[in-house]
Amino acid sequence: MEIDWELTGRIVWCICVVAWGVIRFRPNMKARKIRIAVAKRPPIERFSMFVSQLGLGIIPAIWVFTGVPSAFDRQAGPISVILGALLFGFSLYLFRRTHKALGKMWSHSLDLREGHKLVTKGIYEKVRHPMYSAFWLWAVSMPFLLANWVAGLAGVVGFGTLYFLRVGQEERMMEDQFGEQYRDYVKRTKRIIPGIY
């Protein structure tokens, strides 16, 4: 029996998105028990969150379940789908490690919880923003998993928009909150790729 690699890519993408939701569910419930002390959610933050959700979830889901826009479909093959699955799998591993390290300090937006502590242990010893590393891997996995140029590249555009609009604001917020402790942390870590960037 011949494997339908396009369908396999769609199924793998769906499974990984569900797995991400499962990984995020419990930390989200725990974090909600701690009040937010500082919230920075200007319109640009809301816009970037929407564009990211559109690119990582909504546009690909439309193609996965309806095939629209089919004009941008392309061939799928085993190497592409396997590579995409590995990238998304590593992304899920990073999500899990990140949530474990953050515990109740986690937030989906530019928020600081009451009694917020600067997390520098676990995965945070390697990079300052492992959650963003995980989202980048998710975004980069999509062109390999989804045999459609629009659906495949939507995550890179969507999450890329959020990342570049948010990361500077987040680092300023952390520096304002933690001062020299955060500046020292910045000196010894990279943003999303250990030893490189």
Q: What keywords describe this structure?
A:
197 residues; 6 helices; 2 strands
Account of the 3D structure:
By secondary structure, this protein is mainly alpha-helical. The protein has one domain: Up-down Bundle (Four Helix Bundle (Hemerythrin (Met), subunit A)), CATH 1.20.120. Helices cover 66% and strands 4% of the residues. The chain has helices at 5-31, 43-66, 78-102, 130-145, 149-178, 180-188, and strands at 36-39, 111-113. A two-stranded antiparallel sheet has the order 1-2. α4 runs antiparallel to α5. The longest helix has 30 residues, at 149-178. It starts with a helix and ends in a 9-residue tail after the last helix. The model has no long low-confidence stretch (mean pLDDT 95).
* Major sheet description: 2 strands, antiparallel
Helical segment tally?
A: 6
List how many beta strands DSSP finds: 2
Measured by DSSP, the beta-strand proportion falls in under 5%
Compact summary:
The protein has 197 residues and is mainly α. The protein has helices at 5-31, 43-66, 78-102, 130-145, 149-178, 180-188, and strands at residues 36-39, 111-113. Helix 2 (43-66) runs antiparallel to helix 5 (149-178) and helix 3 packs antiparallel against helix 4 (130-145).
Topology:
Layout: H1 5-31, E1 36-39, H2 43-66, H3 78-102, E2 111-113, H4 130-145, H5 149-178, H6 180-188
Antiparallel strand pairs: 1-2
Helix pairs in contact: 1-3, 2-5, 3-4, 4-5, 5-6
